[in-house]
């Protein structure tokens, strides 16, 4: 979405809570040493894109709800002034779920009881019109407003049907049969809460807003409003999705003011070295200090800082961790290689294979036959 469409409504922009405490289990080995929101996407930690879009929408104060590897965030972002933000950090000693994390962060909010508070999940890449969601919330007089998006196959998501005015009528968790699929609208992971609703979430215990808070509010007669915004939306919870999201940022399909360079087929960060004959395309990112050998071909992939791809290697839709090495003529397709790992020359890995951090795969250890 164009930033021109992010004009702030006349009333004061709300503050926000950003949920960045998840362990990112599905993204391992990427998240063994790095929390999911800090894994680089299009050259910067993914969280940078979320913060920059919130700031472009007029948000100035954001509370980061941290837990897993919480000590990583503040040294990188500090007080947020480099992004024009005021950032604060709240850490969960024990995982509290989405609702518990929101409640735990509320102590750092400055909003009054009826003021709107934005809440974002830390693993969603989206073109959501943030001011429009806030405006919808205010106009409807809602207790909670939800960003909804439409998907072709909603079976992996929670469905959120609405009436003709956009008011939420039910929450249906992961339907499987055709009779259960009553809408293609799903919870897209961005909300506006009335501050007093946040204060009503139980304190000090795990709470899921999706399974507990929202259904209970609905049963109690609260006003939950849905806003369908079907611009770009991607849950970055899997390695394949994360790599795709990074490529889409580079290609300009996904919006962000934080991409450190011009959008196009490739993004090469300073101090990276690309040998003659190497071809980079499809939104490929090459991080600082990384080296790409002669005649290597890299399509829609992310090569993190300090990694080496040796001559003649072919890498597609894959992520190469920090300091990892990919041997000459090795072929990777849909693969994640952890930080510091070595994949020797003349290997071929495909179909979601993962190489753990610091693992060493000898030359020629894995090959696929031509009919696979």
From TrEMBL:
Give one Pfam family.
Answer: GMPPB_C
| Listed PANTHER family | SUGAR-1-PHOSPHATE GUANYL TRANSFERASE (PTHR22572)
User: Could you tell me what this protein is called?
Assistant: NDP-sugar synthase
Q: Which SUPFAM superfamilies match?
A: Nucleotide-diphospho-sugar transferases
TM segment ranges: none
What family is this protein classified in?
Belongs to the transferase hexapeptide repeat family.
UniProt domain Mannose-1-phosphate guanyltransferase C-terminal: residue ranges: 264-367
Q: Which residues form the Nucleotidyl transferase domain?
A: 16-248
Q: InterPro entries recorded for this chain?
A: GMPPB_C, Mannose-1P_guanyltransferase, NTP_transferase_dom, Nucleotide-diphossugar_trans
């Amino acid at each position: 979405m164009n930033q021109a469409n992010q004009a702030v409504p006349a009333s004061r922009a709300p503050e926000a809570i950003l949920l960045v405490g998840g362990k990112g289990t599905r993204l391992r080995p990427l998240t063994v040493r790095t929390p999911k929101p800090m894994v680089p996407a299009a050259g910067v930690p993914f969280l940078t894109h979320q913060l920059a879009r919130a700031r472009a929408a007029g948000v100035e104060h954001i509370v980061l709800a941290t837990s897993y590897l919480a000590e990583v965030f503040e040294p990188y972002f500090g007080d947020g002034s480099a992004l024009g933000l005021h950032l604060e950090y709240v850490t969960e000693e024990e995982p509290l779920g989405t609702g518990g994390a929101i409640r735990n962060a509320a102590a750092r909010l400055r909003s009054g009881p009826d003021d709107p508070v934005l809440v974002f999940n830390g693993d969603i890449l989206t073109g959501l019109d943030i001011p429009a969601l806030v405006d919808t919330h205010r106009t409807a007089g809602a207790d909670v407003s939800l960003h909804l998006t439409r998907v072709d196959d909603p079976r992996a998501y929670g469905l959120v049907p609405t009436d003709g005015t956009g008011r939420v009528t039910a929450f249906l968790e992961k339907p499987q049969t055709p009779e259960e699929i009553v809408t293609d609208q799903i919870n897209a992971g961005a909300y506006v809460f009335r501050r007093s609703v946040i204060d009503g979430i139980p304190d000090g215990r795990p709470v899921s807003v999706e399974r507990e808070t929202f259904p209970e509010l609905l049963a109690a007669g609260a006003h939950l409003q849905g806003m369908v915004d079907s611009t770009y939306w991607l849950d970055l919870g899997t390695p394949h999705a994360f790599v795709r999201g990074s490529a889409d940022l580079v290609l300009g399909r996904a919006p962000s003011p934080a991409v450190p360079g011009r959008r196009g087929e490739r993004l090469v960060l300073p101090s990276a070295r690309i040998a003659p004959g190497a071809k980079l395309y499809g939104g490929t990112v090459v991080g600082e200090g990384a080296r790409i050998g002669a005649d290597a071909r890299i399509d829609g992939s992310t090569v993190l800082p300090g990694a080496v791809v040796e001559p003649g290697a072919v890498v597609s839709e894959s992520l190469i961790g920090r300091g990892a090495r990919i041997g000459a003529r090795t072929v990777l397709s849909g693969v994640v290689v952890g930080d510091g790992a070595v994949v020797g020359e003349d290997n071929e890995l495909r179909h979601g294979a993962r190489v753990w951090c610091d693992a060493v795969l000898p030359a020629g250890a894995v090959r696929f036959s031509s009919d696979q």
